[in-house]
Amino acid sequence: MSKKGYLITGLGVLVGAIVGYLYYKEIGCVSGTCAITSKPLNSTLYGALMGGLVFNLFVTSKKKNT
Questions:
Q1: Any stretches that span the bilayer, and where are they (predicted)?
Q2: pTM of the entire predicted model
Q3: Rounded to the nearest 5°, which phi and psi values hold at 54?
């Protein structure tokens, strides 16, 4: 993967982490029984993972001609 690919994926991780934490803070889980949204760390890590995966979809790779 190129430098640009790492940058895009890293940006996705950062944006996802922020969105995951904001989801916990604003919506969250009142009862505390939700596995992902009951704790801020879980929600932030899940958001970071999803953000990295979604932004990685926009990374293009060069095809090799053999």
A1: 7-24, 44-61
A2: 0.81
A3: -70, -45
- 1-17 tens-digit pLDDT: 788 889 989 999 999 99
- How far apart CA 54 and CA 15 sit, in angstroms, is 11
Element (H, E) at 13: helix 3-26
| Three-state secondary structure call for residue 48 | helix
Output helix, strand, coil percentages for the chain, rounded to the nearest 5. 60, 0, 40
d(CA 20, CA 48): 7
Tokens at 18, concatenated: 């922020």
